[in-house]
């Protein structure tokens, strides 16, 4: 996962394998995607939603 390089995938920076196991990841300024979408659901127009879907599909295809 550290080698993933895609603009729509949060980067894995490092891993601590001792207990507790920790993943160090790139900061998502707006938080978790699902929470952001639910909290702002009335603020999105159709064009923005289509753009988000394209970006998500691109990341999944990668």
From TrEMBL:
Signal peptide: which range, if any? none
| Lineage: superkingdom | Eukaryota
The species this protein was found in: Rotaria sordida
A molecular-function term among this protein's GO annotations: ATP binding
Alphabetical list of Pfam families matching this protein: PK_Tyr_Ser-Thr (PF07714)
InterPro entries to which the protein is assigned, alphabetical? Kinase-like_dom_sf, Non-receptor_tyrosine_kinases, Prot_kinase_dom, Ser-Thr/Tyr_kinase_cat_dom
**Protein name, UniProt field:** Protein kinase domain-containing protein
| Chain ranges of the Protein kinase domain | 1-62
Per UniProt, the keywords (alphabetical) are: ATP-binding, Nucleotide-binding
